[in-house]
Amino acid sequence: MAILEAGDLSFAVRSSTLVRGASLALEEGATTIVVGPNGAGKSTLLKLLTGELSPSHGTVRLDGTALPQIPGWELACRRAVMVQNQRLAFPFSVYEVARLGLEGVGRAQSRARKEQIIAQALETAGVIGLAGRQYQTLSGGEQQRVQFARALCQLEAGRSVAQRQILFLDEPIASLDLCHQLSLLDAARTIAAQGAAVLVVLHDLNLAVTYADRLVVMHEGAIVAQGEPATILDDNLLRGVFRVSLSFSRLPPAGQPFLLPQQHLTPVQPGGVVPLRAASA
Amino acid sequence: MTLAVKQAPSASAAALAVLTAGHRRKSVIAVSALVVFCLLLMLLSLGAGAFAIAPGRVADILFAKLGFGPVDLLDSREALVVLNIRMPRLLLGALVGAALAISGALMQGLFRNPLADPGLVGVSAGAGLAAAATIVLGDRFFLSNFAMKLPFALLPFGAFFGGLISTLALYLIATRQGRTSVATMLLAGVALGALAGSLTGLLAFISDDRQLRDLTFWSLGSLGGASWTKLSVVAPIVLPLLFAVPLLARGLNALMLGEAEAYHLGVPVQRIKALAILLVALAVGASVASAGVIGFVGIVVPHLIRLSIGPDHRLLLPLSAIGGAALLVGADIVARLAVVPAELPIGIVTAFIGAPFFLWLLLRRGRIAEL
């Protein structure tokens, strides 16, 4: 049974509809990756799924319970979120930033247990060597890994309350080098393998294809395709959604798609009228 | 599919334990040092003034009062000065200093900005305006003789509502969609402060001589009017507040990441914000009502604490209270000794320390646009 189910979600601000009619389910143990061009509504969809925004239409259910009916504290035990914003107002140390993940859900834990959770999360995110450094002096990529550690802390502390958990990551590897990109996504997959559902917003299509159990393609606020990456990605979809022509091949032995960008087509202007050919695919 | 990844060797959990233990030790040292420093200042404060009393003599009097010394000591002129004049003044100064420093720390947390301070952004001015209105308009229009017999019961309420309205107005103006614009906050604070100042000026214009003297006292700040009666009105407001503040520490910590992030962490964001605004208004209202407008305590103290032990609100808030008490007690000693036998308004002393400090803060940060 899916941990999270979203049905027919729409979200509109004034006259513009940012998400329209999106339905998806996050399964236990599965990594779902959301891709789409800028402004496709990926982050808005993520905010609807985490409860940060309330949909104008449709509902999000966590194990059958509608999101607004779950108290904030309990919700925090059941899902952790790493958002794109990495700014921090005051000079906290890396260790303290990771500990912030426990400020809501970790109250009941003993100090020794908290320290163990933090050390483990810092280790997984590869930032334990930076623990004493001031967060604000780190590079963007290092900050991103510290934020990942913070989300891991929250997830681990919440596990004593809720077993069926979700990890949301909004473009978690945007500033990371290749090694850390893979290491973070591997860590996310490990969390999925332990029984959680993981949802990641990504831009790199090849990584998305590599790591996704389930790929969700968004375009102009709507989910235009979702399913196993190998089966849903094709030339038509990529040209229509991403406005690029790619050399599209399949790698042996599993036939995993491999995408090499060739040239871009005319980018769609916001509110433009270029028809979406791939929608029928 | 999986990709094999080799992690670079990193510091072990043991090194981490050393790090956290080190920080804890540093915090304990900082707390003890600050407490000792504050107590020493207090002892000094009881002896300092136009009528000087040696610290040893002060200690004797205190011990006698507590029942550990000769009782006849309590009949001396020195005991009278220490117990009936300087003690309430000291306690009032400590309470007001603690309240101001805590409200500074709370506002900085609320606005996620180290430059927020109730004096700087017009909250104190708003409370001062309300206090001035209570003084000047009180006996003209809506108050009977009965209410005027209780001016110190009424003033804190007036000042509280003045502080509350200014804080709310500032928050509504400077915060859009959960994000606070610093430039807007500071400029709106200047505008609100100027408005409150001009209205206070108008009140001064229409006031009579006695009221004018009172108003001058409010605008510069002074602990001169301290008495046990006054203390008995202020203490019940400020003391519970000092105990309520630790409840906010975790929530404020989480809020430093941003409002959405704090919500994701399971922190009741709206409740924390509302409580912080209410506590700031209460603290500033009580301070302004009892000691007038005293600036810069709220910005200097929390900043120094952050520099020494970091921005964790669980330590920052209680230490700000102690540091604020120490700063104001110290400033009051200076105010009493600078121009003996007269005394300076304490607001002048704190501004003299605080304004250069604030400038230093700006120069040191160098990139205020990013704050």
Characterization of the model:
The complex is a heterodimer of chains A (281) and B (371). Chain A is 34% helix and 28% strand. Chain A contains ten helices and twelve strands. In chain A, α2 crosses α6 (140-158), α3 packs parallel to α6 (140-158) and α5 packs across α6 (140-158). The model of chain A has no long low-confidence stretch (mean pLDDT 89). Chain B has one domain (38-370): Orthogonal Bundle (ABC transporter involved in vitamin B12 uptake, BtuC). The longest helix of chain B is centred in the N-terminal third of the chain and has 35 residues, at 13-47. Chain B has helices at 13-47, 55-65, 77-110, 123-138, 145-148, 151-174, 182-206, 209-220, 228-244, 249-255, 259-264, 269-291, 297-309, 313-337, 346-365; strands at residues 175-176, 179-180. Chain B is 73% helix and 1% strand. With 371 residues, chain B is an all-alpha fold. Chain B contains 15 helices and two strands. At the A-B interface, α2, β6, α3, α4 and α5 of A face α1, α10 and α11 of B.
Helix/strand class of chain A: alpha/beta
| Sheet with the most strands: spatial strand order of chain B | 1-2
Residue share in β-strands of chain B = under 5%
- Beta-strand fraction estimate of chain A: 25-35%
In what order do the strands lie side by side in the largest sheet of chain A? 6-7-8-3-9-10
Radius of gyration of chain B: 23 Å
- In whole angstroms, the N-to-C terminal distance of chain A is 28 Å
Shape assignment of chain B? globular
What gyration radius of chain A follows from the Cα positions, in whole Å? 19 Å
CATH class division of chain B: Mainly Alpha
Question: Main beta sheet of chain B: strand number and arrangement?
Answer: 2 strands, antiparallel
Q: Percent helix among the residues of chain B?
A: over 70%
- Biggest interface, residues from each chain: A-B, 52 and 39 residues
Mean pLDDT of chain B: 83
Tell me the number of helical segments of chain A per DSSP (H or I, 4 or more residues long). 10
Which regions of chain B are unreliable across 5 or more consecutive residues at pLDDT < 50? 1-10, 367-371
CATH fold-level topology of chain B: ABC transporter involved in vitamin B12 uptake, BtuC
